[in-house]
Structures are given as C-alpha cells and as structure tokens.
Recover the amino acids of this structure.
C-alpha cells in the first residue's frame, strides 16, 4: 500500500472469484468485516446471480442502502478480474447516511428518475436541488444496453444541477445481451440505481482519460442524435472524413482504430471522450454516446493510460489535503480492453495507489453527462 | 421555446454567473450546458455569441435545469 495516499482507516472492500452466489456472498461478507456501514455497493459478473448478492448484503447490512450492477470486469485495490464480484462498504465515519432508490425506465427516463429522486429526498428529508454540493454526492448505476445514459444524466441535472452524480453503465462481460442494476431487493434490466450520500468527509471527483488532441478537429454537421449516429463531419460523410484524418481507408476502420482515435469534446482543455463503435449506413459512424450537430470535436490520440491514471488519482488525493479514505471507481470497458491487450492488469491496480476502492469495468461513464473511454470516481477524504 | 430577452451568450453567461454566485457551481452548470448543446458559455465562439436560435437553445437548456432568464 502506498502510505503517501492512505493515512487512516479507509473504506472496507472485498472481492470474490466464486461464481456460486451463496459462496461469493459469504466471502464478501467475511472480507467486508465488522463495519458500521452507511451504504454498500457491489459489482458482479453476469455469471453470478447479482440479485442473490444483493440479498446477502442486504441481510448483512439491514437498513443500509445496497446498490449494485452487472459488470464487464471487477476490481479492488488488490486486483482486477472478470467473472467475480467486488464490493465496498462505506463506514459511517465517512458517510453520515445514504439513501437509494431504483429508477425503472420502461415508462420513460424522466418519470423513472424523478420518482427515484423523490424517494431519495423522502428518505433523506432533503431537497437535492438545495443540498450542499460539497456535502452530498450521488452515485448512479445505469443499465448499459438501452442507450438511456444521456437522458438519465440530463434529468439528474435538471433535478439537482449542482450535485455531482458519478457512475457507470452496467456491463455483461461483452456479451451485450442483458445488464442489470440492483437496489436492495429490487432488480431491473432497464433502470438506474441511484444512491445519494451525505458525507462526513470532503470528497473530490476524478475524471481521467488517456488521450490528447491531434490538432485535427471537425464540426458535426449531420447526426441522428437518439441513435448516437454521426452522418456528416464538416459537411461530408463522417467515416470518410474520419478515415482521412487517421490515415487509412474507410474499409480499414475497425475497433482498434476507433479505440486508438476517439473524438473529444474539449471543455477547458480537457477531453470528454466520444468513442466510435462502427461504420453504419454506408458512411455514417455510430458512437457509444451522443454527439450533437454543431459540436466541434477533436480527433484524439492515446497517451499513457497507466501513468495518467496514477497521476489523476495522486492529484485528487493532493486536492483532499494528501489523505484519502477510499474510492468508488468506474473504468470504461474500452480501457479494460487496452489494459488486457497490453497486459497492464497489475499496473492498473498499482495505479490505484493502494487506496481502498471497489469498481467495475463499465459500458459507459457518468459525471455531468455520459462519456466514454474514461475513468470516473468519487474519492473520499478524511 | 423559452421567451427570453437575452441577446447573446455572453449576456446569458453573466446572468447565470450572477445567479449562481459560486465559481464551482457555475463551472458545473456550464459543463452540463456544453454537453447538452455544444456551447461553452465561458468561451462562446464568435459565430455562436449572437446566434438567436442558439441562444434560445442554451436558454432552454438552462430553463430545464431551473434557471429562467427572461430579461
């Protein structure tokens, strides 16, 4: 453990590689240990019955909000894996109290999220719109296959524009068949689990990606926004313009090119990544998140994923005065694929700096909006 | 569409900044607006600044978040 990053008791974290839910749940409970928890989160491979993990943790922590989701890989500060389950308990010394609700999105995102927020506000007896954004923080787990993330983040922003909701989209180990989110005893494959924490310590948000602008930029001139399709860049077929910029033929565009060269919406010199998924409709490009007509985006190139992650977390700890008690971390599946391809698993874990944390590899990341190829996290101070 | 009297992004930004009266809050809302509209209220492009349709679009995004600017 890096003693420079952790100075006092931290979050309680756990990991189980067992796929039988009773055994996995038992291991998690053992590892979480004796803790007076204010909230619990877990992230489970779809190979494990997540609802049973939720039930085990809810039984162990009665009256405590428990949220979770399926994943595309799980990790703690001690290791990263697939087909397991990670969990974290947030002690009352760090979180005064928490409240959670499951938003069901089948009847509309606005309706579902608004109802969930009302439930959270009722539990906390606080108007989230008026809540102190330096004291309250939200975590949100969104199902990863319905493309609702932009709207979920917008509605959260409408309800509580000053509050940070940080999170990720549930995964299913790259099967793209079904993802689930959990809240207490409830589960949904088209929903969002929302947890709001009333904190006893300072916190900071981490958002890091490993890209820099190439100097080539484009304006979106035609897009099918709801379907996350960009038809034209600078008035020409998107795939053609993109292929010319990266220096290859349109028919050579594949996932390796897309992963190496996403587009970035630059905000204060920081990229908010939009990752291409595939060429569609004979020359348009489908992305993993929406890009709007009129937006100017930069073509990006990769930097040092491990080094950038380490630096971002170290800077965040410094922002908190040099001491962190733990983190909940959301890391994009595309970053995991790069980590896997370069055999960086141990380096990624080392980059977490020994900060007690649990997280998962996501189908998208959330903070103020929906983003790709990024790591988002809530880092708790002391 | 929101009926507004603001004539430019710069004007809209000033009103928002005054309303929030907190740099961190202003930064958060401006980022939300940018992700929804593509307009950076802190540094609007010259072509965007007095584009009435775009100003109305940004004002509408702000109104959704509860920030109404009617002049």
């Amino acid at each position: 453990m890096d003693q420079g990053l952790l100075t006092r008791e931290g979050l309680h974290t756990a990991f189980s590689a067992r796929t039988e839910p009773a055994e996995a749940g038992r291991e998690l409970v053992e590892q979480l240990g004796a803790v007076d928890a204010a909230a619990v989160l877990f992230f489970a491979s779809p190979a494990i019955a997540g609802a049973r993990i939720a039930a085990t943790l809810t039984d162990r922590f009665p009256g405590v909000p428990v949220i979770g989701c399926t994943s595309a890989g799980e990790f703690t500060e001690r290791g990263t894996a697939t087909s397991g389950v990670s969990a974290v308990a947030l002690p009352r010394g760090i979180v005064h109290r928490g409240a959670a609700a499951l938003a069901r999105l089948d009847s509309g995102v606005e309706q579902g999220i608004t109802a969930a927020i009302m439930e959270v506000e009722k539990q906390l007896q606080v108007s989230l719109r008026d809540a102190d954004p330096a004291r309250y923080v939200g975590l949100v787990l969104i199902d990863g296959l319905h493309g609702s993330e932009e709207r979920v983040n917008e509605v959260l922003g409408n309800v509580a524009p000053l509050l940070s909701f940080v999170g990720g989209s549930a995964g299913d180990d790259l099967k793209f068949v079904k993802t689930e989110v959990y809240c207490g005893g409830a589960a949904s494959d088209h929903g969002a689990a929302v947890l709001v924490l009333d904190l006893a310590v300072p916190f900071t948000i981490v958002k890091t990606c490993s890209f820099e602008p190439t100097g080539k930029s484009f304006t979106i001139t035609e897009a099918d926004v709801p379907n996350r399709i960009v038809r034209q860049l600078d008035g020409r077929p998107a795939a053609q313009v993109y292929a010319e910029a990266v220096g290859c033929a349109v028919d050579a565009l594949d996932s390796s090119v897309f992963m190496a060269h996403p587009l970035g919406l630059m905000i204060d010199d920081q990229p908010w990544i939009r990752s291409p998924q595939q060429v569609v409709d004979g020359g348009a490009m489908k992305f993993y998140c929406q890009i709007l007509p009129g937006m100017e985006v930069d073509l990006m190139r990769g930097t040092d994923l491990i080094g950038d992650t380490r630096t971002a977390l170290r800077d965040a700890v410094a922002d908190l005065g040099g001491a962190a008690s733990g983190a909940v971390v959301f890391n994009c599946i595309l970053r995991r694929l790069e980590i896997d391809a370069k055999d960086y698993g141990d380096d990624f874990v080392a980059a977490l700096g020994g900060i007690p944390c649990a997280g998962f590899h996501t189908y998208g990341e959330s903070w103020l909006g929906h983003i790709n190829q990024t790591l988002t996290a809530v880092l708790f101070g002391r | 569409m929101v009926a507004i009297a603001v004539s430019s992004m710069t004007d809209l930004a000033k009103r928002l900044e005054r309303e929030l009266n907190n740099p961190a809050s202003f930064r958060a809302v401006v980022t939300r607006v940018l992700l929804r509209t593509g307009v950076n209220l802190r540094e609007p492009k010259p072509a965007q600044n007095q584009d009435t349709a775009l100003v109305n679009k940004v004002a509408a995004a702000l109104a959704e978040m509860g920030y109404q600017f009617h002049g």
About this structure: Residues 9 and 49 of chain B are 5 Å apart (CA to CA). The helical segments of chain B are 9-20, 23-37, 46-49, 52-64. Residues 9-64 of chain B form one domain.
